[in-house]
Amino acid sequence: MNERIAVIMRSMNEQPHTRRALEGLFEQQAGGFELYNVDSGSTDGTLEVITEFNPDRLTRIRPEEYVPGRVLNRMIAQVEAPIIVLLNADAVPMSDQWLERLVAPIREGRADATMSVQVPRADALFIVAYDYARAYDPRNIKADNQDFFSAVACAFDRRLWERTPFREEGYAEDLAWAHTCRNEGARFELVTDSVVEHSHDYTLKQLYRKKYRHGVTFVHIYGAVPRPFRQLFQCKRELARDLLYAIRSLRITTIPYNIAYRVVIHWAMYCGLRDGQKGKV
Fold first, then answer.
1. With bands split at pLDDT 50, 70 and 90, how would you rate the model's confidence at 1?
2. Which residue range forms the structural domain that includes residue 253?
3. Which residues, at least 6 apart from 123, have a Cβ–Cβ distance to it below 8 Å?
4. pLDDT above 60: residue 5
5. Which of 197, 214, 241 is the last residue of a domain?
């Protein structure tokens, strides 16, 4: 008998993707799931769409109350299902078997936690689409980043969360959680045939803020320290890689933005590591 599933969906101004995400969820072949929504002050119509689909299991919080790990812990504590699924309100399942495939390794005892592949939206910026393709290549995850994990579309055994709740301070809560769980022996799996559409074309200011927070959090997760020359070397290496890819793809006009995008990422990470180490944030 299939175990019950609780799907927890977070939202904050996710239009125009929310309706597609909810329609995709309710078209899933895997039955027996209950949806729980938490919205942190949407003003763009997201809340109205959610209310249309799920009026009875909707939690509303103020924007200033939203701390990712804290919200996830509170929502999970309210449900009793043995399998927890997280799906952001702007992540669109790409097939009606997305959920069934995502939870199968957990039900079969092969994994304690799983995550979906994320593919960029059709109108995503060139460099953003390139980063998503690289991030979700299983070869890169195995070789370069054992701690890579995204809570945008994932599933896990509730007992894993009971042993290791999400970190309630700061951001990158999914990376911190995965790092701790793996160190305790938990098995994680990227489910390559469970796919969602999800990507963000951040402004450079938004990108800086996101990566700065990651830098601060990495100090706490890994004990990372700022190494300016190493950061500069990595930036130069990735700029060269981006340049070659743009030339091969005949997307020469994207090169100026690609450079700005990559430089902002590395500068923000360095600043976050520096300030996190000094205890400024």
1. very low
2. 204-278
3. none
4. yes
5. 197
